[in-house]
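the four lines:
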Amino acid sequence: MDPQQIGVGMLGYAFMGKAHSNAYRTIEYMTWPPPLRPALVAIAGRNQDAVAEAARRYGFAEPISDWRALVTDDRIGLLDNTGPNNLHAEPTIAAAEAGKHVLCEKPLGRTADEAFEIWRRTAAAEVKHMCAFNYRFVPAVRLAREMIEAGEIGEIYHFRARYLQEWIIDPKFEMVWRLNKDEAGSGALGDLGAHVVDLARFLVGEISDVSGLTRTFISDRPGGHVDVDDAFESVVSFENGAAGTIEASRLCHGRRNAMTFEINGSKGSVVFELERLNELQVYLAGSRPGDRAQGFRQVLVSEADHPFWEWWWPQGHILGWEHTFVHEIHHLLRVIADDGDVRPYGADFEDGYRAAEVCDAIVRSSETGRREEISYRSL
Amino acid sequence: MDPQQIGVGMLGYAFMGKAHSNAYRTIEYMTWPPPLRPALVAIAGRNQDAVAEAARRYGFAEPISDWRALVTDDRIGLLDNTGPNNLHAEPTIAAAEAGKHVLCEKPLGRTADEAFEIWRRTAAAEVKHMCAFNYRFVPAVRLAREMIEAGEIGEIYHFRARYLQEWIIDPKFEMVWRLNKDEAGSGALGDLGAHVVDLARFLVGEISDVSGLTRTFISDRPGGHVDVDDAFESVVSFENGAAGTIEASRLCHGRRNAMTFEINGSKGSVVFELERLNELQVYLAGSRPGDRAQGFRQVLVSEADHPFWEWWWPQGHILGWEHTFVHEIHHLLRVIADDGDVRPYGADFEDGYRAAEVCDAIVRSSETGRREEISYRSL
Amino acid sequence: MDPQQIGVGMLGYAFMGKAHSNAYRTIEYMTWPPPLRPALVAIAGRNQDAVAEAARRYGFAEPISDWRALVTDDRIGLLDNTGPNNLHAEPTIAAAEAGKHVLCEKPLGRTADEAFEIWRRTAAAEVKHMCAFNYRFVPAVRLAREMIEAGEIGEIYHFRARYLQEWIIDPKFEMVWRLNKDEAGSGALGDLGAHVVDLARFLVGEISDVSGLTRTFISDRPGGHVDVDDAFESVVSFENGAAGTIEASRLCHGRRNAMTFEINGSKGSVVFELERLNELQVYLAGSRPGDRAQGFRQVLVSEADHPFWEWWWPQGHILGWEHTFVHEIHHLLRVIADDGDVRPYGADFEDGYRAAEVCDAIVRSSETGRREEISYRSL
Amino acid sequence: MDPQQIGVGMLGYAFMGKAHSNAYRTIEYMTWPPPLRPALVAIAGRNQDAVAEAARRYGFAEPISDWRALVTDDRIGLLDNTGPNNLHAEPTIAAAEAGKHVLCEKPLGRTADEAFEIWRRTAAAEVKHMCAFNYRFVPAVRLAREMIEAGEIGEIYHFRARYLQEWIIDPKFEMVWRLNKDEAGSGALGDLGAHVVDLARFLVGEISDVSGLTRTFISDRPGGHVDVDDAFESVVSFENGAAGTIEASRLCHGRRNAMTFEINGSKGSVVFELERLNELQVYLAGSRPGDRAQGFRQVLVSEADHPFWEWWWPQGHILGWEHTFVHEIHHLLRVIADDGDVRPYGADFEDGYRAAEVCDAIVRSSETGRREEISYRSL
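prediction for all of em together
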């Protein structure tokens, strides 16, 4: 018997809209049988021609120009919000309150307050909610999490992560919405830092305090004034005693999409690099008495017993960046189908909110010059 | 206006059938607009339940159990043969002679004679024919080819390549068709070696002679006797004077899917590793007078001006192994739509045949102990 | 004509004493002709048998048990202090005030105050003084410095460095002087952090403020209580506007001696790893118009025109860690012979003092929770 | 008590003379206590000024211009022949027949015949003889040997090695003795290939047959005609059934001194790269049931229990290329002191001869086009 359908309405058709659309289409046959078969009902966007083209390209039945139509469409069971950051709150809340499950791109809100509000009202609506921290769904990252969970790395001492890109290093690069505070909320912090903060929480635990600073190296660009950060640096402490650093920058020559982290524990270490996302470096202490061949293992995460690999290829036939979305959205569809939990392997809106609290604390610390303790609100 | 359709009939639904099916489905929206929109008409295979499941999974309208029905189906414009090696010749020729374009997995034939026959009769039918050497369609490999073509590497002195896997290293691994000469033709030679021979020709030029040997380390396995090679080693000479080695083995612990090559020329060198297929290492001599920072460049092949990247993501968001098929089949559809040429960037059946001549010569050399010159037949 | 001699008196014969002794013996014939020929006059240490053995082994004419005898020995022109941190101040100052040139291991003092006092009194004595920050003398590090100085990396945005070791990760590892505050001053901070702080200053410029924290994960060890840091984390700002992080830890499994740094500027980036000290990764933007082979270059720093390589081997025949001391001490002998300047390529005692100010500020920030501005004292 | 002395006479003061001289001087205090203390009696060379300078630089008591004086010098117990290849036979034999122990650079002879003659007459003289295959004394290579010996890699299936350099890639590079057959015997083959052949024998076992070819890409150079090979390629079979390839070239852009090998066995694999000589990559199958973190281990060979490390530094403080000679000559001095065996860890003249047989067979195969079986002569 073929799987049941779920109607999907999407807001946004740009970078993330393309990535999510690809995931819906791929899930249908790759994660076979899919928990639910996505029916691409409608896609919304401001530019009428572009959204019509996107609908035709990705196979949405209907292009629309006002996202409100998605919320009132009874065929839609899942609202996927890939719009810019200033369009996260209102459509997501409206869809949730209309009884639709919601998937929202990160950062959940432009501030912790906004993120909290999205979480609060969505949770009250009792729908499934997921914040699209897709790097939790890299097989190597999930393997790291499972190894840590199983105690193989021991007590965690350190977490160090940096997310480096270079796309705005040219001072002549023109203004885009991502460089405007009203629309984006923040710069490298919310865009790149939020990912790393989420991974810190996913892999190590809750962050208790931060010291940091933000920098805008190039404030004036063709087309406008940049009022978000180009980069930030921070020291973080975790509730479990671990300590480390989190950094991000968009001005690092040669770094295309270079998110890396290293975790050191009392029994081993793991290292990950996003540009080689099929690999995990693992050091395990004392795996064999008298072992003279100890060293970081270059694990090509592509075996049948590795996370998510039951759907794919024989070992060594590597996956790409886009597959993280296939895994992520498959996870959400499974949760919806089974009335299960997004957590702990998926990030829900509370996770989106908590990441925002850490990002806000880095901004505060940059301004006050003080180590900022973080208190998380509950519902 | 939406692109025109082409009806696709597929033979085989296993590893390669899955990879090709994924490509047809992805082309439709990723290589937008596609040159032709693939309509998945029918899929053929011996196991009725499995082929029915495959049809449902990948979206073929009809599962059939006799490939002959594909050949007579008027809705089908392209026969895609992903069956085992002993099913390459007959269906491919029949489809071509029925006026269908044909795509056939490698190795084209189990021997050079068989491959020649497939080429001869297909060419006579005046349809488009393509041998599925998908590694030509790795962006990094194509970039290497374009750099060599543009003279950036200079006169080529060396080509060294090895394709190492480990999947049959356990002596208890059971017999499969790939270990049986009747079905597979050869072992590592036709399966892995053919890929490397094709890349040698694609990147450097025609091979003029070879010295080599083959080895079967584990002859008796549960379920039968292995009569193909586990590994081969060879020295190759090229018509243009370059010299090098080509090797493959399926008994290399730790090597999941490790095809690597290195090319050295009078102006530079390039190095490629399939397990990190998004990267190309490039050495360019004398790029700057007085340059004290000369070294191999780790090029992450993911820029807007890199081959095939106009369809994908922002830089650094890497592709997977499966995307080689998307590029490959897109190329074929473009050729069909435009009545263009599969060559030089795609491999046609002559390329499939020529690779087979080299593989056969390695077998001969292994037996005779002599350097074997290769003479290629023409039509 | 053979070079003139300089009498060397050494304090300490352990790890650093061995490394320095090796350098004196090697300089004599490798950095040929040496600026001065070191005559190993006497070596001082507390354990009489051990110091006698060390003298015999390394070729010092005389073993002595009281360092004061070094200071009054007229044959000695250079006092080399490789003793533990609590023996840096008194012997170094005494030697300087006796008119001897002085080389002192890092950290110069256990605190900024102590380091300042050593600097002040030594400078007043008008002898040459050098603080043994040997990593300035890695060829790859020096190349990085020269490229930055020449403007090839542009305006610097970021400096990120970490120095990770693992040697005390076993809780059963016993107390040693390096874990005792009275003797060592601090833990990872003064031992590892001082190196990185010095490189930050050497490569990027003066540090203006820091936020940080220190951690002692394992306080009780066989043989005593640890009262120094196992690790520290910090965010640093530079006077020129650059921002980054500096970290060190002795509890990182798999990290033998892993000092790494990355510098990003407006024109390029450089990356260095101490465990591969013969290599420098360099990214240079826009080296060629239309260049599709941009990437980090793996520069094997071993060419004739690379720093220090005029003394060594043909390209690719790599150097070891110990050679940094050969280069360092050669530099000092050249400075003494020519009455030249230790700076800018060598670190003098002001550099030793300034590193100590930064380390102290990290401790203060850890305690106060505030970003600490650093004010450097002058003479 | 201090170790006994042994008088050393050296022939040659160029690249290898410098490397060996450094070793003698270093052994004295680093491999403490040395088995014998080298006394540098005399150094011989044709250029009187240069040899005088070399004597002064390296500390030889006496420079001489005729090597025959070394042979008759009673103070000399060890003749170290670092001269050009055409000066290997006569002085080495003369010294041995005068009762001196002999160390001779590789290749032992310019042909197998010459090498055999050196071995035969030296062995008859009943002195210790060693052929300077220094790469046996890289700690990582020795570790590989010990692991293979202990069965940790299992039955060996493959050995693949290449030794790539680039120093003569410029056609304007002028003639030197290494490009002249009379003086050098062969080109890349004897210079680079001999090293790799020796490692093949050291690590895997005796080579039984080869197929190969040699190439001279640039025959005419300023100052003369090149009559040796620029490069060679070969397929090798081992007596134990293993198969592989051995290659070398001096025309590989970007390859400074790139000797690499890979060995695959039934239980694991090892990989080595000379430009990162402190590292060994090791894959061990099935080290832990259910292990999901299998991969090549990047072993930094610098632990206290690693070969040769008892003499050096704390872990992670890497060695350089030159240290291979320290280990090698220390081994020889130990053998002389103890009247022990150069084998199996050192290479004696039989090893030098056997490597020459393989090199000769590659030349023969290149000429005949046939796989050449190798028969080794015995005494």
